[in-house]
Structure formats: C-alpha cells, structure tokens
Design a protein that fits this description.
Radius of gyration: 31 Å
Mean pLDDT: 75
Helix content: 40-55%
Shape: rod-shaped
Number of helices: 5
Number of strands: 0
Distance between the termini: 55 Å
Low-confidence stretches: 175-187
Structural class: mainly alpha
C-alpha cells in the first residue's frame, strides 16, 4: 500500500486496498517504493490464530461447546428413572417393614429395585456404541474429531463441503445438494 505522508492520506481499508495485501503463503518477488531511494514498508495485519488458517486450527483444537437434544433427553430419561427408583425404594422398604422381613433382605431387595430402574451400564453402552461408530467411519476413511457429533450425524441426509469459502460468497447460485452414499455398506 503506498505511503505518502501527506495530509490527504487515507486510512487503510482491507476491501479497497486488496491489491496491496499479501496473504499466507504468498511470496513477494519484487517490492518497489513509490519514491526512488526510499525503503519499502509493510504492516503485519494478523498473526497466529487471527488469520484464516489460524481460526480454522483454533476451531479444530477448541470446538464450541454444543449440547445436542439427544444428550439432554438421555439425561432427562436417567433422571426420571432415578426418581422412579427412589419412589420404588421407599415403597419397598415400607412394605418389607410392614411384613416384618429381615433387615438384610430389605436392603438387598430395595437396592435391587434401584438397579433395575436405573441401568448402571447405560452410559457405558452409549459410549461403546459411539466408539464402534467412529471405528466404522475410520475404516471408510472418515475421521471425526468430536465423538458427541456422531449421534447427530446419523440424522443427516445431505452434506455440503465448502473448502474454499466460495459458497459463502454473496451472489452465488444456491446449493441444492445431492443424495448418495460413498460408504461400501450403502452400495
């Protein structure tokens, strides 16, 4: 960008002065000053995570926390089952005391109701199912950096990949999408 040093000097505008900006990976072959004998000056606009590539790396390393309806619904389900287990626990203790059952039998039967109502292996089963899904995706050369999103991905029917950012530019034709599956299991 030319630097004049005069009073009519305008502020830098990244849209207007695009031809004076070097982006990541650009090699400057020649730099000519506006006035002979002067040095060529450059200003660093962005470094590290503030560049486009840096924002991409940051989004991969530190994804935004998301809560999926599936996860919240599963916690609600466990909470309802726990409430039913507590009610059953209290009712069974009262019934067993009324029938004068031994204390050891009361404790075993009351705890048995809690174990039946709230399956202790439910979180483990959900995690194992997600891990199996991730392994199947890896065999198809699809890599997932966020295991919680695997459950959501099962509901998708159209995916649009945008590597260049050209689809996000204004005045472009809309993407209608395609249907199909590249996985061997879908063929």
């Amino acid at each position: 960008m030319p630097l004049h040093g005069g009073e009519d000097e305008e502020a830098f505008d990244s849209d207007k002065d695009k031809r004076f900006i070097l982006f990541c990976g650009t090699t400057a072959m020649e730099a000519r000053p506006m006035v002979r004998g002067e040095k060529v000056h450059a200003i660093v606009l962005r470094t590290g995570f503030t560049t486009a590539k840096g924002r991409l790396v940051r989004s991969i390393l530190f994804p935004k926390p998301t809560t999926f309806k599936f996860n919240t619904d599963s916690f609600k389900f466990v909470a309802v089952m726990a409430a039913m287990a507590v009610a059953g626990f209290v009712w069974s203790i009262k019934s067993f005391v009324d029938y004068k059952v031994k204390l050891r039998e009361i404790i075993l039967n009351a705890c048995d109701i809690v174990t039946i109502a709230v399956p202790p292996a439910l979180p483990a089963a959900m995690t194992i199912g997600t891990e199996f899904a991730i392994e199947r995706l890896k065999r198809a050369r699809i890599f997932c950096i966020s295991p919680w999103r695997v459950n959501l991905a099962g509901r998708l029917d159209t995916i649009c990949f945008d590597k260049t950012g050209a689809r996000a530019a204004p005045a472009r034709a809309p993407v209608c999408g395609t249907r199909g599956c590249l996985l061997p299991a879908c063929a």
